[in-house]
User: Fold this.
Amino acid sequence: MAVHTARPSARERLLAAADELFYREGVHVVGIDRVIEHAGVAKASLYNTFGSKDELIRAYLEGRHAAIEKRVTEGLAAYPTPREKILGVFDIQGARFQNPEYRGCPFISATAEAMPGAGSLAAADAYRSWVRALFADLARQAGAPDPGALAQQLQIAYDGVAVKMRMDGDPAADLAAGRGLAAMLLDAALGPA
Amino acid sequence: MAVHTARPSARERLLAAADELFYREGVHVVGIDRVIEHAGVAKASLYNTFGSKDELIRAYLEGRHAAIEKRVTEGLAAYPTPREKILGVFDIQGARFQNPEYRGCPFISATAEAMPGAGSLAAADAYRSWVRALFADLARQAGAPDPGALAQQLQIAYDGVAVKMRMDGDPAADLAAGRGLAAMLLDAALGPA
DNA sequence: GCTCTCACAGACAGGTCTGTCTAGTGTTGG
DNA sequence: CCAACACTAGACAGACCTGTCTGTGAGAGC
Assistant:
């Protein structure tokens, strides 16, 4: 590997540019030309590396998935019990609402107008399965009688608060509402804390 | 008014075509040419009537808003108490999940990649305010201590179930999960029924 | 030195997009 | 009969889209 001033590879710069532009403005609105210009990369490099815009979008979403999974997994280590970890997921994700760059869930936005077979749909499915499995696993550890059903409801709260935050944009109120919703679900499924 | 075979006006045919195509495939994906072809209308008629695609999108969403408001308002008459009316909103909207043409909330989809100032954003704001006011009004009638806060949480469940249904697509389970979530919120805010 | 790989720069093709404009048609009311 | 009106048909402009292609240059390994 290069020892001095290692300029990021074309692939890395493309992913960074795609992440920024696709998330801020949307995968349909942003064209290839803007991505390569922002990345300082030749068009041929994009097509050699990813093959198509659809694959670039998929890679962008997979990167988002990996970043969220890492942030949540590492953040949850600070919460002692399964029950607190579930609420912790809302806290960790809700902390992002304060960021004025927050634009809602990238998977919901990118797949809102996806055609059947689009790469964004596969990436979103994988992400949503991970969220559901995380909630179900924690619910099982917390002793929920039906961890799968509780996970479904937690995911509804998880999606709903992201949508509400994007469209209505009241960080403190939306985080509190989502967290409160999750707490009520836990009280109902597990008994009051 | 015409007595026989009154062919719908260009405006009506445009709105019908826009409603079908925009909802099924998305407002960004569907171009003007496809709308006018499907409506059997000249391009000039579209621009004389609506002025721009953005205004057509706004009119499409306003039509959706009016239809939902009518369906929900009329449907709620059958529910006796405010508490049952709140659950009724989920039942009435959830009934649409059975329809294989269901594609999620049109406002979430249309605004997912909207640029600031787009007509879709204004239409979505109006729609969301109506939903929130409806929930808040029913919550107040039901005796909730903080109707506004309860309405926010009900809206999170309302949005979340639409997203989950669009992306995961399990009509019976998603309706049950959303309705159960709303019922828990009511139990927590008002005491068990 | 020499080749091989990677990446840059940018022209180009072929298509689609929104929006404008001209010109013609049919109906209706006076 | 005729003028107003709403609509149709479609060419056109200008921009943008994705994806392909050619040619150039810089650095690494032999």
About this structure: The two ends of chain B are 53 Å apart (CA to CA). Residues 31-33, 43-44, 47, 52-53 of chain B lie near DNA strand C (CB under 10 Å from a C1').
